[in-house]
Specification:
Blueprint lengths: L7 E3 L23 E4 L9 E4 L11 H29 L3 H5 L8 H14 L8 H10 L4 H4 L10 H19 L3 H14 L4 H25 L4 H7 L6 H22 L1
Helix pairs in contact: 1-6, 3-4, 3-8, 4-7, 4-8, 6-7, 8-10
Pfam family, one: HD_3
EC number: 3.1.3.89
InterPro entries: HD/PDEase_dom (IPR003607), HD_domain (IPR006674), YfbR/HDDC2 (IPR039356)
Length: about 260
Amino acid sequence: MAVTSPATRFAPPLNRPFHHRSALASLHCASRNFLFLRNPTPSSTIVAVRCQKPLSDGIRSTESMSRVSSASSSVSSSIDFLTLCHRLKTTKRKGWINQGINGPESIADHMYRMAIMALIAGDLTGVDRERCIKMAIVHDIAEAIVGDITPSDGVPKEEKSRREKAALKEMCEVLGGGLRAEEITELWLEYENNASLEANLVKDFDKVEMILQALEYEAEHGKVLDEFFISTAGKFQTEIGKSWAAEINARRKSQLTNRQR
């Protein structure tokens, strides 16, 4: 009879032959907490020894190797995607370049303040604030590839949308697909199609951020940037958007009046 120490206990009977690779064969149980031992003689008792660490004979399981490979691929894809997004930080908004603004904001600057707007805005019935923040962060993400296409470029709306959809698809492929890529695509399309209350609000933030930036550039550079205010007038869809735009326009009126004195 085999002798067991406090670190061992008898294993339950096995109803199938125990396969061994050598005089001392080993197997892991499902929990990997026990090592089953037996001698090559059929009469020997099989015992289960509690192990402090999972055993390895130097060969990784296919499942384990697959997980490592998948994790490595995911990390690499994430960094590739983030590197591509760097262009959003360095690409300047073309509307301001066309106005001769020195050192204008980047695409990322614009999206960041929109996300802040979503964060601080008052509650709106039926609107998911977190979704608005995410939508603000991704709504111009395709511009990392296509750049900032403005009305002055003469590109038809349908063609602009086609280019941006293709760019978004490319970026999601760089990310490696999966749930996060699907979420980015869903948010982008929802915004593009103005298909929800969240999209209505974020569309308003897009215009509010633009006219607020125009107000700031007018003050900093002594310019009159009427076109940005004219192009957005009457196009706000939500009460928050309308009230914020009204406040910005009131401040602009006061600012222009003081400049003329």
